[in-house]
Specification:
Blueprint lengths: L5 E8 L22 H6 L3 H5 L1 E10 L6 H15 L6 E5 L5 H11 L6 E4 L12 H12 L9 E5 L2 E4 L4 E2 L8 E2 L7 E4 L2 E4 L20 E5 L7 H8 L4 E6 L7 H8 L7 E6 L15 H4 L2 E2 L5 H14 L3 H10 L3
Parallel strand pairs: 1-2, 1-3, 3-4, 4-5, 11-12, 12-13, 13-14
Antiparallel strand pairs: 5-6, 6-9, 7-8, 9-10
Helix pairs in contact: 4-9
């Protein structure tokens, strides 16, 4: 008898669990109003193909998700994947912060079993709902033998993305998620998976169940910026700042000197570029990163670099070890 893959469907809310007053409405709806069991019941093929285990971790619009939810979800995922009957986990999630939750799990889940994070751009009640196809496709990927050893992935609109690379790039289109310059990991359609590259997984860091994630704030460069926001974040207790700079991670004159002094306050500073792809250079003409104890992002976007810093600090890495860990993402 053929082994039936065991898949845990973990619900967290979002548009994929949303409902509207009319089936022709795709942008006006209430998110997180349908439970994960109802989502499963609406797709009978799932129970015919897989042994399903449903868990409602929480029920939120993803704009309400905070780091404490990430820690709770991490524990739920680890607990679920420790069950020998579960071969993979598929997490339904709102799209506003989907890539952040996926990145956190990618950096922390210890199990080698596949973890897929999915959402929908249209509510479950819409005539054109994209959620069911995303659920089926994610389960197809989760059951694929070559999904092992790839960490946490995002499956949306027939594309398979790395959590580290994917970004929501459109407010409402079903093609909202894209991996930009680096590209998707693969594609899935009609029960078939095609991988574009071999499996690669970063080294996840183990977090203690009782740990707290440190406060790490994000600052964006813009013409005429000063250091008022930096000082406010320091006063609020920030242990690290991520600076999304111009071009090669450069800073405007109103913030430059304050950023250079952060190491004197035992506050980490990580540099990346503002919303454009590409790896920034260490020890640039503006910043001597080695001398100032700064961390550079390689190719991480600002909001994902923030999460990497939070995880590194919570796991006990020092700055040098954190830099080595981040650099290893691209090896």
């Amino acid at each position: 008898m053929k082994h039936r893959i065991g898949i845990a469907l973990i619900g967290t809310g979002g548009t994929i669990a949303g409902s509207a007053s009319s089936p022709i409405s795709s942008t006006h709806y209430k998110p997180a109003s349908v439970g994960v069991e109802a989502i499963v019941a609406s797709i009978p093929e799932l129970s015919e193909r897989y042994n399903l285990h449903t868990v409602q971790a929480f029920q939120l619009g993803s704009y309400d998700v905070i780091p404490q939810h990430w820690l709770s979800l991490l524990q739920q995922v680890e607990r679920t994947l420790s069950d020998p009957a579960v071969d993979a986990a598929v997490i339904t999630h709102g799209t506003d912060t989907l890539e952040e939750t996926a990145t956190f799990l990618h950096l922390t889940v210890q199990s080698a079993k596949p973890v897929l994070v999915i959402g929908a751009m249209r509510p479950s009640t819409a005539y054109s709902a994209d959620g069911p196809a995303n659920v089926i496709n994610a389960c197809t990927v989760a059951a694929h033998a070559k999904a092992l050893g790839r960490g946490t992935m995002v499956v949306m609109n027939g594309r398979i993305h790395s959590a580290l690379l994917v970004t929501k790039r459109h407010v409402s289109s079903v093609e909202a998620f894209d991996s930009g310059f680096e590209g998707a990991l693969g594609e899935v359609a009609d029960g078939a998976v095609r991988w574009f590259r071999p499996a690669h997984r970063i080294r996840p860091l183990a977090l203690d169940q009782s740990c707290d994630l440190p406060r790490v704030d994000l600052i964006s460069a813009y013409a005429g910026a000063d250091d008022v926001a930096i000082k406010a974040f320091l006063a609020a207790g920030a242990r690290a700042l991520v600076h999304a700079g111009f071009g090669n991670g450069n800073a405007p004159p109103g913030t430059r000197e304050t950023l250079k002094l952060l190491h004197q306050h035992d506050v980490w500073l990580a540099r990346c570029s503002r919303w454009i792809p590409g790896s920034i250079s260490r020890n640039s003409g503006m910043f001597n990163d080695d001398e100032l104890g700064m961390i550079t992002a390689t190719g991480l976007q600002a909001h994902k670099l923030r999460i990497a810093i939070m995880v590194a600090m919570a796991s006990g890495l020092d700055r040098a070890a954190c830099q080595q860990w981040i650099d290893s993402f691209w090896e």
